[in-house]
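Standup notes
- HV: blocked on the assembly model, inputs below
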Amino acid sequence: MSSATSWRDALKGQMPPEWAEEIDRFEGQMELRRQNKIDEKVFAESRLRRGAYGQRYDNGQRHDGVRSRALAYPDPEITKGPDTLWHAPGMQRIKIPFGGLTPEQLEVIADLADEYSNGVLHVTTRQDFQLHFVHIEDAPDLMRRLAAVGITTLEACGNVVRNVTACHRAGVCRTETFDVTPYAKALAFFLLGHDDAQDFGRKVKIAFSGCEREACGLVRMHDIGYLARVKEANGERKRGFALYVGGGLGTIPYQAKLLSDFVPEEEILPLAQAIARVFARLGEKRNRNRARLKFLVAKLGIEEFRRLVFAEREALPYDERWTAYLDSVASFQETPPTHPGEKRSVETPAEGYEAWLTTNVYAQRQPGYHLVTVHLPLGDLSSTQARALADIARRYAGGHMRLTDEQNIALRWVADADLPALHQELSAIGLGNPGAGTICDITACPGASTCKLGIAASRGLANELRSRLESKNGDLPDAVKALRIKISGCFNSCGRHHVADIGFFGNSRRHSNRAVPHFQVVLGGDQSENGAAYGLAVGAIPSKRAPEFLDALTRRYAAERKPDETFPQWVARLGKKEIKRMLKPFTLVPAYELDPSLYSDWGDPREFSLGDIGVGECAGEVVSLFSFEIAKAEGEAFAALLALDERDYRQADQRAYRAMLLAAKALVRSQNLDVGDDPDRIVAEFKSRFYDTKLFFDPFAKEKFAQYLLERHANPNPNPDEDYAHQIVEEANLFIEAAYACDARMAS
Amino acid sequence: MLPHHMSAKLFIKPPFCEPAEFIPLFHRWIQEQPVRGLLIDVADYRHVHHGPGVILAGFEGDYALDFRDGRVGLRYSRKRRGWRDETGQTDSERLRSRLERVLKHLFQAATALEAEQTLSQPVRFRTDEIELTFLDRLQTPNTRETLQALSDDIVATLASFQPDVAVELRPTSLDERHPFTVSVFLSPAPELRTLS
């Protein structure tokens, strides 16, 4: 049994030091925010960049179906962001780069779900996990426990590069050009916390795909998308990627444009860095609705954007990380489980085995092995299921799992002979259901259940459709089974309704002076070819009528489609007028007195209201680069103060010095983004730009505060005692104040 | 050994109504506040096999119509760290006080549920068994040492609700990955009204 009384102590030395430091700094910022010493917007962006998101009702208001009532959280004067109460529970996003997950990681996330959330792990459409109803006080320990198994939540939200995703079949796919996994991993960690990726107006989403024709990584709907290509030259096969930019869903979806049809593998990291720089420099910052990369690409045109990116690439200072990872790419491979099939023979497969084999099992390109999709209803699994699944993954998949962008978990490297036993074990924990990748496998964002922006109950509708479809799945024609349904709670497309055959997104209509939950129907999207075609909205129907409409639509499709005609082709042939006509009877809303059920949403008996919609945090908080950087310095200064309390004078000195460096860097970066982290360079740049020019000088104290840093840098104390540590901590705080004053003077 | 997060569960006797009936019921509880604590929202996890079922999410803790391990019951999980322990208490006293608070929340909610007239089947609880889970792997790992360390306090806390009852503890799993969970058997089974 551990004698440690805190996770900080118990996990000391079990995570990269910079991650440990980062979490300590966040804990320091939390304390500063509680004391109202950090601006709430700065703190909001800071926590968002660590994946700590707001959740519905965190403004302290909830409509209970009759009226809006205050939720009496304690200390309502303390906030963790604009209109976001400190004590209101929130959502923690845990990003899993390229969806790659180990059993040990899954077990830890299950523990976190037990202890800090409600025992449920939710898989998102971008290969993240989300835990809901988490108290902010638990966030630092939660982050430490993740970091100890190699997961960082850093940049899971906020205006940064979000999780880098990749096709879950990468490496085992029969049609891929090559395995994109090591490239996705390298880019994810290269851009994590990168100086050039900290000053965006909005988030950036990146995806990797190995196949042109499949849905794969859906690179055409991402800000930046890499599609694997091989070029033959001089008898050699050279790996690279077609590079797409400026795609995205959201309210108005954009197809990505081709920036380059072949970027050699050694150029993918520097080009991403160059794109980040151009976006940071020229992207919109004030109007969030126009701040995604897609708007910049559209505004400049792809030719001009391309010119700027390649010019920026030429100007980048060399970074050895651009190619350092390439040595390990060739040797990157997963180890299949040893002795596949041994001792796991099953005499009678569990019920539903054949159906499961058809829909959930994909033959890998490696003969004798399969990728098995574990179908998670609504992307959810319990902590108990998660622990059991971790064991199953060890036994049958060599521990190799990937989260999928359809909110499932894929087990890789399952041997032929193990399939019946695997299905039996999955069935025993309620995860042996067939239907993965079919009409029953519905994707849905959280919607009005927990999202602050959600209008309608996307999960409620998805659950209703799923149960109805599963109950008649055996009777559905194959063409209908093959359809995909995706549902978003609002127009922001987190459920990816644009790339579904049949998409829905939540909205509201008024009838007899009451709000009625509706879903806009989006038809004709196509996720194949990396999300090649977006569907179009054809009209809104009341939420409660959506199942009837789906039934009518799919029956007609099955009856009228020509051989080999796809759903989007059938929709196009049918034409908008006919679709509208078909939709019409489902749009009718009876008077409330006749049928009040239409005035509430699926899974929520409250009379529908828009009163709970808040301000979303998807867009993060737009704070100046200086404000964000200086907050890091404040966190460090606070950590120095804590070290002083603990009589750790060496630590106090180091932290205080680092706080001054960070404050100096915050100023320098407003003039030179490339300052980096080397203390000599930061001090030299600070001296030439702010000391020699006297910009940093206080009107009365003159160079005094600048001297604190210059002196500490030039003459570190090898044996700091209490007096010295006390002094340097004081100086760090004064230096930070002087940095603020300097920034204010420059702004005026 | 003083855990921050813990839960207690009472099991429901068959026959049992449709779990979906708990969704409007819990929404009504938010309006009418028949149970302790600040209530926030209702989360429907009926689609999760042997999962937390229907949750009435609160600030200090959650109530749930819970299906874990395939056993239906009412569970109260204390989630918030801030316990506001009295100063000068030993860890043992703090643990008893925390456990007592968790059980009071559970018993009050169970009593409210048995009084519900809106369900298609009245809910009746078994009181011969209570499941306690200590959701804090650092303070209370799932080990025999933890059982040994906590047993007296658990027994004493239960005895404070019903002095003449015999209390027997049985850990539900020896898998160290699982949260430390004990089934507490009470004999004779007390009346719910005496517990609440």
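- HV (later): unblocked. Chain A touches chain B through 53 residues (CB under 8 Å). The two ends of chain A are 58 Å apart (CA to CA).
- Next: hand off to the docking folks.
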